[in-house]
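Can you please make up a whole protein chain along with its C-alpha cells because I've never seen that pairing?
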Amino acid sequence: MKAFISWSSGKDCMYAMHRFLADGGNEVFCLLNMSDANSDRSRSHGIRNELIRRQSEKVRIPLIQQPTTRAEYEKDLKAVMAHLKKEHAVDTGVFGDIFVREHKTWIERVCHDMDITPVFPLWGMDTEVVMNGFLKEGYKSIVISVRKNKLPPSFLGRIVDEAFINDLRAIPGMDVCGENGEYHTFVFDGPSLADAVPFEKGEITENETHHFLQLR
C-alpha cells in the first residue's frame, strides 16, 4: 500500500502511522494536514503550521498542508486525494480513529468517492491499550489543547506519561486517549523522528470551547 497519513501532529496519527509501517510492505508517501485558510494554524488542533512543518522534517516524510475552511473542507480534501492518486499513485489513506463511528463512516464515504482505501490501524482497540502501546514505543507528546467542559487549563503543557494517564483515570467518564475530544497533543519525540522537535511553550489562549497552549 502507498499511503498518505491524515495528520494532526498528535499521538493518534503518529501511532497509527507507526503501526501501519510495521508491515514492511507499506509505504507512506506524505503526511496530509488540513490547515486553516484564514490563519497560520492547523484546523484540527489549532497548532501553528510552522510547528507541523518542523515535526515533518524530523519524521523525514514530506508534508502537504492544504488550506481550507469549514464549508470547503470535504471538497478540498477530495481535491488533494485526487491529486495524490493521479500524480503519485497513492491508493490508501491512514487514519487514527479509535471508536467514534460517525467520523469513521464519513471518512469511509469520502475515500469511497475518491477510490482510496481507508485504513484504521487503531480502530476497535481499547484506548488503554493504544495509550500503553504509544508510550511503550517511546513516543513523547505534550498537551496543547483541552475542552473546557472536560479538563481544566492546568492540564495544558503536561507531558503524556503514566502520571498524566492516572489523573485522567480519576475523572469519571474520561477517555484516556481523549477520543471524544477531551484534549489534543503534539508529538515531539519518538522512534519515528530523527530527533526531538525543538519548541518553546508560549501563552495560553482560549475560544468558546477550548483552552490552548501556544507552542513556538
Remarks:
- The beta strands are 2-6, 27-36, 63-68, 92-94, 117-119, 140-147, 183-189, 201-206, 210-215.
- Helices lie at 11-21, 49-59, 73-88, 101-113, 127-136, 162-169.
